[in-house]
Amino acid sequence: MAKTRPRRAADARRALYLLLLLGAAACGPVGHAVSMAGEATKLTFEGSARELRDDAEPPEAEPPAATGPRLVVLALDGVDRGQLYEMLEAGSLPELAALLGASGGAFEHAHFEREAMTTLPSSTMVAWATVMTGVPPAQHGIAGNEFFIRETRELAAPVPVSVPETSQVMAIYTEDYVNRLSLAPTVYERMRERRPDLRIWVAMHQLYRGADRLLLPDRTALIETMQVSVEDELRELLTTEEALSLYEELDQESIENAVDAISADGTPDVLTVYLAGTDHYAHVSRDGPDVARERYLREAVDPLVGELRVALEEAGGLDDTYVVVTSDHGHTQVAHDDRHSLAMEGDDEPPEVLRRAGFRVRPFALEQERGDFDAVVAYQGAMAYVYLADRSTCPEAGQECDWSKPPRFREDVLPAADAFFASDRSGEPVPEMKDTLDLVLVREPRPVPEPDLPFEAYVGCGRTVPLRAHLARHPMPHYVALEPRLRDLAVGPAGERAGDVLLVARNSDRVPIEERHYFSPPYRSWHGSAGRKDSEIPLIVAHRGRTASELRRIVGRVAGPAPRQQHVGDLLVALATEDEPARRSAFAAASP
Questions:
Q1: Which helix (H) or strand (E) holds 549?
Q2: Burial class, 552, CB count within 10 angstroms (exposed 0-12 / middle 13-18 / buried 19+)
């Protein structure tokens, strides 16, 4: 069994959180709390693990004879490349360094990729879906932390931003919710096509279709973490120590369940361990995201990684094993106030722009009994998606729109774009929106089954300009690879899930903090932009039997010289199936 590390005490305050959750007034989230409790009951019945494949062989006391390399993926949420690499090279993360095979401070068996770039928006769900499918968002269809699905009229919010409800978060682990949203095979399904005998375990990650076993945390830790993440009142009750304790407990559950499973059933061929706490802590810490993440990585993540490393070594699980460390995005500090927060309710927020332009905006809730709305807004931190109906199908208030049809470009899309453009430039019709946006992007709508077009820059008076040409005339050096990453998001069979109008808030670590804005309730740190701090992700590949230069060549052959996030998925598949004949020559060529 895993050793239990001492936990920081915050029992009294956490008890208060639960009282607030379960005893909220009738106008609060009581129904939501009951829904969450129902989902949590399923986790209780299923214990700390879900067996996912009916045809899987029962676990053996020892791992089966290896037919190829093993793969361990450490998925760290909210960690940018610069900070993680600096901490490793400074010796601040000794346990993670040991997992990567470091000796005497030298990483002779690890390649540190320095060009990897996340997707857009640089946010949790779209980024991890891209990693775990190996295709861009316009193909896998998970367009953001929350997004609208036109053909089913569903607001998907697996990581809620504008919706203070977490039933879909729980459904990720009880009802395969994100797996059902994804339109592309996962990396695990792709691995099985080449090595059907693989044993694959996933600890806590949102995408796990094709794995044998899903390792889950204690339900109470998950409920508390998710509820605090969406309730501003609860976040404000947290002290720095209590926040760290809350999020550390969730990560500790993930690691301990993985360690227990390894101790009981040996080492799988593929193990993914997801640690979410660094991101959660950065969002709420009063110390700012850099200080908060440095502390969380050092005090919480590194000791937990040490427990995992010891368990793997004792079980022989690091013999002929690739270890991959990666993340989804970084963080940018923002002002925790209403002026910089572009939130949901009130006559000074983005939805009011649409209302003043004559649109009927869908309320910010998961379920809607009435369908008499012709505009939907979904928030992504530094970006927001606006979805529009063909208003000729519902011209009067109270009429339901036909969302299976695309909107009309001149009659529906351009009026919405013009309202946001005018509010940003002149403050009319919503003065508080002035100087909050860098870009208003639009495109000619296409029916859902058809591939979607790239976004263009709206420049006023009904005119649009191709984004590349617009950026050539009006450079935005505070953004990195904006145009190609937006193509990954928008151009493809599921590109319509990124909306008809895309709003890019002015938000980057390269602009003064007083000029940074973000689409969400007030936080202390956000991401989602094309800014460098949000965009540069770590990608470390280690193997104790290979040199750093060999690993560099392997990564280059599979992911190319400037990997984007979908290439990380391709790399995972290649590493787990190295003995597959089509890959063997590439890996052999990587050796000196």
A1: helix 548-559
A2: middle
Pairing state between β 437-442 and 321-327: unpaired
- Confirm if 275 and 256 have CB atoms less than 8 A apart: no
| Distance of alpha carbon 330 from alpha carbon 118, whole angstroms | 9
Residue-level pLDDT at 224: 64
Please state, in angstroms and rounded to a whole number, the distance separating the CA atoms of residues 98 and 104.
Answer: 10
pLDDT tens, position by position, 134-166: 999 999 999 999 999 999 999 999 999 999 888
Q: Give the contacts of 384 (CB within 8 A, at least 6 positions apart).
A: 342, 350, 377, 378, 502, 503, 505, 519
Token readout for 574 is 């290649």
Tokens for 464, please give them: 């649009």
- Biggest alpha carbon distance in the chain? 72
Neighbour-count burial of 477, counting CB atoms closer than 10 A to its CB (0-12 exposed, 13-18 middle, 19+ buried): exposed
C-alpha dihedral sign at 164, 170, 172, 176 = negative
User: Could you tell me which residues come within 8 angstroms of residue 58 by beta carbon, excluding any fewer than 6 positions away?
Assistant: none
> Rounded CA gap, 332 and 534, in Å?
6
Query: Kindly report the CA angle at 347 between 341 and 351, in degrees rounded to 5?
Result: 70
Q: Average pLDDT of 490-499? A: 97
Local confidence band at 53 (pLDDT 50, 70, 90 cut-offs): confident
Look-up of token digits 């019709």: 429
Token pair of 318 as six digits: 């690091």
Angle, vertex CA 478, rays to CA 531 and CA 384, nearest 5: 50
Q: Peptide bond before 512: cis, by omega within 30 degrees of 0?
A: no
State the pLDDT at residue 55.
Answer: 60
In this prediction, residue 547 carries a pLDDT of 96
pLDDT at 317 (0 to 100): 86
Please, are residues 133 and 207 in contact by the beta-carbon 8 Å criterion? Answer: yes
Three-point CA angle 573, 248, 268, nearest 5°: 30
* CB 488 within 8 Å of CB 137: yes
For residues 67 and 270, give the distance between their C-alpha atoms in angstroms, rounded to a whole number.
13
* Residue 177: closest CA among 202, 150, 204, 158: 158
- Residue with tokens 């919480």, as numbered in its chain: 300
| Residue 42 pLDDT level (bands cut at 50, 70, 90) | very low
Question: What is the edge-to-edge ordering of all strands in the sheet holding 49-51?
Answer: 49-51, 213-215, 200-203, 270-275, 70-76, 321-327, 539-543, 110-113
Measuring CA to CA, which residue among 99, 166, 66 is closest to residue 323? 99
CA distance 364 to 351: 10
Q: Return d(Cα 269, Cα 255) in angstroms, integer.
A: 17
**In the predicted model, what is the mean pLDDT of the chain?**
87
Per-residue pLDDT averaged across 299-319, rounded? 95
Q: How far is Cα of residue 184 from the mean position of the Cα atoms in its chain?
A: 17
User: Counting beta carbons within 10 angstroms of the beta carbon of residue 393, is it exposed (0 to 12), middle (13 to 18) or buried (19 or more)?
Assistant: middle
Task: Tell me how far the alpha carbon of residue 469 is from its chain's centroid.
Answer: 30
Residue 321 backbone dihedrals phi, psi, to 5 degrees? -130, 130
Whether 122 shows a pLDDT value over 90: the answer reads yes
Q: What pLDDT, in 10s, does the model give residues 187-201?
A: 999 999 999 999 999
CA atoms of 287 and 294, how far apart (whole Å): 11
CB 513 within 8 A of CB 334: yes
